[in-house]
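Weekly modeling sync, notes
Attendees: S.R. (lead), two postdocs, one rotation student

Agenda item 3: backlog of single-chain predictions. S.R. asked that every request posted to the team notebook include the full sequence so nobody has to chase files. The rotation student volunteered to paste the first one in as an example of the format we agreed on. Action items at the bottom.

Example entry:
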Amino acid sequence: MLEYLSSNPATTAALLSAVATAFAAIATLFGPIVAAHLAEGLRQSNATRDERRRNRMFIFSTLMQERASIASPAAVGALNLIDVAFSDSSSVRDAWAELYAAFDTSKDVPIHVREERLRRLLREMAADLKLADGLRPDDFSRVYYPNAQAEEEYWRDLERKAAIARLAGPQASSSVAPKVPGPLPQFPPKPSELKE
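Predicted structure, as returned to the notebook:
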């Protein structure tokens, strides 16, 4: 066969042309399909990345706007989303674990320590979101919390305590709500504790 092809260059050229045409036909047929699959994979990857960033930004912005009252329903919801949204950021999750430990009422952690841990969490989130270059350290501690809003929150807290005291009956003190029994569990664990 090789002798025949070498002695007939026109036949060799025709055969190679037929092979090239077959490859071109295959590429024409399957090229768009492969390109479509590749494009869809890239689109899904970008959509997932964008959604993850949007979720992280929502959590960060919620905590920034609620940092004066970190026990607000919106802030509590945002705090509880950190482990999922920042699952690949050990620095954010470590900062969240430290803040969570500071919330343990049995340890009597001073307020300024909790506030510093909250600022650290916000700084770590800003770094993860690539916003840290535009924010100064004092941006995390500067909080606008008008007296009227603080008073309103204070009165709501007093009303809640009074309602709890009424529900608890005469054995409860009228000025103090009963404490939740037991310390908070040590959750979320730091990511470094999970890798054992």
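Discussion: group reviewed the output briefly. Residues 107 and 183 are 8 Å apart (CA to CA).
Action items: rotation student to repeat for the remaining queue; S.R. to check formatting next week.
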